[in-house]
Amino acid sequence: MLIKNNRTLKVHKNFKLVYFLFLATTSLQAGEEIEGSSSFQSGIGITMGLGVANSSTSAKDGTASNNLKLSGYYYRQNPQAPFRRIGNPNELIDFSNALKVKNKSGVAWTMGALFQKRMGFYTMGLRWLFGSLANSSRIAYSSGFWHYKNNPDINNAYNGSESSISENNITAFQLKNKWFTSFIFEFGYIIGNRIQLFAGPGVSFQRQKLASINSSGKSSGGISKTVSAPMVALGARYALTQRMSLGLEYQRQWMSKKTWHQISKIVPEKTTAVGAPTFKTTNNVFLMTLTYMFGAK
């Protein structure tokens, strides 16, 4: 009976030892799987993003209205408010001062490639992106006829100090962001082999379109140009598998100031542009991203 109990005790001890070794081996394997499951390795991958973009447009001063030189005049006598209208009989749009700027958010999407090098807990990479931003800004300007106040004598009819554009109407234009392409230099740090924090500067080239808004509120006509901008990107990625990661990202783009000298091509019919609009835009882009690495090492 004693021999049987000793054997039972020995078997029980051996079972506990085997169970302990099993747990230790399983833990090591699990650790190796976690270690190997990181997608933050050296290699080449593709990246896609979907989110929202909003812009902040600043309308800068255009050509001052009192610098406009016009010939001829049209005279109208009004006992309540006499004035002399001069120059072009068409309605004028004064681009020297914007009355109101209204910004609108839109959908943003990106796709591109990621070239990444891992150095311990750090990563360094270059990312190329191509995408589209559907955000826009609506800018309103005063429009009316060029005139002199208080019906001045014809001899000083062309002295601009007393002249202005009567604010009879408001004419609106839409500045819309179209496609863009960016190059971003990334510097990252890996936490727990699952989370990658990254940030970096870059440069972006944005295609913008300026259109006139007609009386029904729809855009008509349009001129386009490409604007360059410095930018910064920052965000985080979480490794889902060895090759795939999900992330959140914020981009800020500072569009350089541009003057739209060809504005006369899209102003409404029988309308003359006074000066040219100048805009400077900042884009804020919020994205959810998905990255897939090919042959990560």
From TrEMBL:
The keyword Flavoprotein does not apply. GO terms for cellular component: cell outer membrane. Residues 1-30 form the signal peptide. Keywords: Signal. Transmembrane segments: none annotated. The keyword Signal applies. Residues 188-295 form the Outer membrane protein OmpA-like transmembrane domain. This is Outer membrane protein OmpA-like transmembrane domain-containing protein. It comes from Holospora curviuscula. The lineage of its organism: Bacteria, Pseudomonadati, Pseudomonadota, Alphaproteobacteria, Holosporales.
